[in-house]
Design brief:
about 300 residues, Molybdenum Cofactor Biosythetic Enzyme, Chain A, 7-stranded mixed β-sheet, 3-stranded antiparallel β-sheet, 12 helices, 12 strands, globular
Length: about 300
């Protein structure tokens, strides 16, 4: 489960509270409160409740009863404790008939079986994770400045692999950074182009050009680079960072992904729109330090 658990409404990253992890320094959404009930309550118009670990451990029926009780009490949203993978099946069963479910990707582990039990889908367990061999060039685009992504960038560079850094200040000054990066990458078979930076460097950039503009400039730059790289023959593309991944997918016109083999928990290779293009889209905080090189090796 990527080391993420929720207990009494508090999110843990491994053994650390969210508010004590590297996410407290996130450049756009610093997570300074680990209590998800409070965090969600600040963002929604209705009351937020908690379905705690004792209820979740009691199974799908107990969860459904808790949901019904919260509804009667006027609660519109609920955070569910989850401390073990097995609990995801019970949560999926309890939520299967809800018209809309939002959750971490772990909940999807249990939903297909719950849907199949209701006759809504037929499970295909053979060959579902196989993707075509596409060949071609490969690239990694990193927009996240999380501790994990910074470690992954450092690991790539320390291995002597080609890397090019994007600086928001240069983008703000109108320099043709995207074109410079593309020119640099033109004769290389696999590259890393990154805007990842330390927390102090991010704060300096944000102070100089603004928080939102800094992020927008980086996303626009990396999106343009992604489109041009694909046009120039890149067929395997790793993207690090949630906002960056969204911007790149939109720029590439991707509307459907076929899920392939897992690289690290929560991060698979995917195929875009049945095109000869493989994408690995990851949250900034997912993956081991050698994620970039291992991902490309897996899709060779």
């Amino acid at each position: 489960m990527n080391g993420r658990t929720v207990y009494r409404g508090h999110l843990f990253v491994g053994d650390q509270l969210l508010s004590e992890s590297g996410l407290r320094h996130h450049p756009l959404t610093p997570m300074t409160d680990a209590n998800l009930v409070r965090v969600l309550q600040a963002q929604v118009p209705g009351r937020v409740g908690l379905i705690d670990n004792d209820v979740v451990n009691a199974g799908a029926s107990a969860i459904a009863q808790s949901v019904a009780g919260l509804r009667r009490a006027g609660v519109r949203f609920a955070v569910c404790d989850t401390t073990a993978t097995e609990q995801l099946d019970a949560l999926a069963e309890a939520c299967a008939e809800m018209p809309l479910v939002t959750a971490g990707s772990g909940l999807a582990l249990g939903l297909p079986a719950a849907y199949a039990r209701r006759g809504w889908v037929t499970l295909d367990t053979q060959g579902s994770s196989e993707l075509p061999v596409v060949g071609g060039r490969a690239a990694v685009l990193a927009g996240s400045s999380s501790t994990t992504t910074n470690n992954q960038v450092r690991t790539w560079i320390d291995a002597g692999l080609p890397a090019y850094r994007i600086e928001p200040q240069r983008l703000a000054q109108g320099e043709p950074v995207a074109q410079q990066a593309l020119d640099w990458a033109s004769d290389k078979t696999r590259v890393l182009i990154y805007a990842s930076a330390s927390a102090d460097e991010v704060r300096l950039a944000q102070a100089a050009i603004g928080v939102e503009r800094s992020g927008q400039l980086v996303e626009q730059c990396l999106s343009r680079i992604a489109v041009d790289l694909v046009e120039r023959g890149v067929r395997r593309l790793v993207v690090a960072g949630g906002e960056t991944s969204g911007a790149v997918v939109q720029a590439l016109g991707v509307s459907q992904l076929r899920i392939g083999p897992t690289i690290d928990p929560g991060v698979p290779w995917t195929q875009a729109n049945d095109r000869p293009l493989l994408l690995a889209l990851k949250s900034g905080n997912f993956g081991r330090d050698d994620f970039f090189a291992r991902a490309l090796a897996l899709a060779t």
